[in-house]
C-alpha cells in the first residue's frame, strides 16, 4: 500500500466543501432550482440556457474556480480532491452552472505547460467560465478523432457535445494538425464561431455543437502534444464527473428514503417493506463504492499518477452505474408522483443520465480497463 | 518510506519495523500438510496443529493481540493490530486457526468478562493454544437470533444448561464456546444471557459434538447438544438478562464493525495451481487467459472481460471504503460503511467465485476429485463455501434490514 490515508482531503478541503454546502443550502434549494429551470414542461419548448449569473459571480468571488488553478497562474493551487468535493456538492443540488466544465478545462490547461495556458488559467482564476470542445459528432472520447482542423492558427470544423457552451467565456479546442492534435483557446464570442444549442434532456445545463470558420485561436499545447495532454487530464475529468454523480446519488437516496418513511400504503410506511428497503440499501452501497473510488482516484491523480487512469476509470464506471440505479429507484419508489413533472426527482434523474455517458459510460470505462489490465482481446 | 507509513504514530512505526523484521526471519514457509481455504474448513488435526504452532509463534512475537491490555495477555498498544495485519498480509503468511476466538470471543470477553476470567482465558485464546467456537445458532434461531431455546437454569452457585446448538464451526476442536442462551421465558430479548463454556472438558459429560457435512462434502461445522451441563457463575458475561447486549458486541466484531481490530494473517496461496487465489478478483484475469469457454479463450470474450472488470472495481471500492472509514470528514454517518462490511465482502467473494465458474466453461463441471479440474476445483469449492458466509453472522437479508433501519432510518421490518 502506498496511499495517503486521508485521500489528501485535509482541513482546507473540508472547509471549502462545508462552505459550499452552506452556500448551496442558502441559495439552491431543489424547489428554487425547479422553479428556475423547469418552468416550461412543453416537450417542444425553445432551447434555452437557464442559470443564475449572480450566483455564479458569487461563486467565482468565493474562489471556487480558482481553487485548482496553480498559484503561479493566480490561483490557490489546491489538489484535485478540492474540485471533486465541490463537484459533489454541486451534484447534490443539481446546480446549473459552468462549474464542472470550468474545472475540467482547468485540469487540461494545468498539464499544458505553456505560457498561453498559464494566461488562460489566469483568466479562470479571474472569474471566467470555460469549457472543452474536444468531441466529434460520433461521440468518440479519443482526442485524435476531433473533427476540428487548424491551419495557420485558425480553427475550422465542428466540435460536438460541448458542455455548458452558452455559459463559457472561452473554449479549449482539440484540433487536428500536421503531426496529430494541438490544443487552442478561443473566446466564445470570437467572430466565426457559431454556438448551436442542442435540445437536451438535462434541464440543469446546456450543451451545444460549436462550429468554427477560420477562427484565429491561441495555441496552448503544441501540435503533436494535444493527445498526451488530454490523456493526462482525463483522469481528473472522470473524477469530477463521477463526483457530480455521487452528489446527485446521495440526494436521490436521502429524498427517496424520506419519502419511504412518510408515504403510507397498506397501513405502513413504504420503507417497512423489504421490497423497498433492500434496494434502497443497495443504492447506498453503490454510492459509497463510487464515492470511495472517486476520492481514491482523485488522490492518485496527485500522489500516484501511474495509477491515476486505472483508478479514475474504475470510479467513473462505478459512478455511472450508480447514477442510473439511484435515479431509476428514486422514480420507482416515488410511485405515481415520481413519474410527474412537478416532482423534483426528474431534475436529478436527467442530470444523472446525462453525466453517466459523458467521457464514456460504465461499459466503455470497463472496456478501457480490460485493455489496460488484460491486454487487447484476440 | 511508503505513504501508508508516513502517518504512522511513533509507536506504530516502531511496531511496524518490528513486525517486518520478525516476519522476514520467521515466516513459517510452505505447510507440510494440506491447508484448506479457510479456518472454518479445518478438519485435519495435523493441519490444525501446524497452524496453531504458527499462531503461537506470532503471538509470542507480539503480532497477535497487540491492542489488548498486558493484563489480558496482549501488547498494551494503541491501533497496532492493524499494522501487524498489514505486515502479515504483505508477507503472505498463513491464516490463524482460532478465527472465532480472535474475531468474536476475544473482544466479547474483553469488554464483558470479569477481570480474573479475562486473565484466565485471553492469553491462551490469543496464542491459539485453546480453540474457540460460537454457540449462537439453533435449529429455530438462525436469522431470528433472539429466538433462543437453549436454557440455563440457576441452581445454587451454578448454572445448568440444556439445549441444542447447530452450524457450530470448529466445535470439534474447541476448548471453549461463547454461548448465547435463555435464562428467562418472560421476555424474548431481555430473557437472554451470555456465558463462556468449557466444552472440551465436558465432552461425554453433558456435551456432545456431532459433525455436520456441508454441501461441499467437507466437515468443519457441527451440532452441539447440552444435557445438564454445569457451568460456574463466574463464566457468565455481564448481567443476567443482558445477553442480547453482549451478543451485539460479538456481532459487531464478527461483521468487521467493532472497535477492536481482529488479528488477521491470511494471504498465503496454499495451492500450487495457478488461478487458485480464490477470493481475489484480480486472479480471474489469469484464470480467464488459461480457460476455454465455448471453445475459445475466455479472456477474449467481451462479456467476461466486462464482468471481471466490474468485480475488480467492486473489490477496489470495498478496499477504498475501508480507507475512507478513517477520514471523519468524508463520512456522514459513522456506521454507514462499517455496517456494510460483512454484506459487501461476502457478496463480492460469492460473485468472484461464481464468475470463475462461468470463465471455466464446460470444465467448471469438474470437481476437486478430478485431476483435470481447473485450479484443482478450488473455485467450485469456493463458490459453494461462499454461501456459508452470505448466510452466517446474520444472513445478508438481515444485514440489509439493519442498514436500512440503523443508517437510513427506515421503519423496522418484521
Structure notes:
The complex is a heterodimer of chains A (378) and B (414). By secondary structure, chain A is of the alpha+beta class. Helices cover 52% and strands 15% of the residues of chain A. Chain A contains eleven helices and ten strands. In chain A, strands 1-4-5-8 form a four-stranded mixed β-sheet, with helices on one face. In chain A, helix 1 packs parallel to helix 4, helix 7 packs parallel to helix 9 (308-338) and helix 9 (308-338) runs antiparallel to helix 11. The longest helix of chain A is centred in the middle third of the chain and has 37 residues, at 226-262. Chain A is globular, with a radius of gyration of 20 Å. The model of chain A has no long low-confidence stretch (mean pLDDT 97). With 414 residues, chain B is α+β, with helices and mostly antiparallel strands. Helix content of chain B is 39%, strand content 14%. Chain B has twelve helices and ten strands. In chain B, the strands form three sheets. Chain B has a four-stranded mixed β-sheet. A four-stranded antiparallel β-sheet of chain B has the order 2-3-7-6, with no helix packed on it. In chain B, a hairpin with a 2-residue loop joins strand 9 and strand 10 (296-297). In chain B, helix 2 (10-26) packs parallel to helix 4 (81-90) and helix 5 (99-112) packs across helix 7. Chain B starts with a helix and ends in a 7-residue tail after the last helix. Classes of the chains: A alpha+beta (378), B alpha+beta (414). At the A-B interface, helix 7, strand 10, helix 8, helix 9 and helix 11 of A face helix 1, helix 8, helix 9 and helix 12 of B.
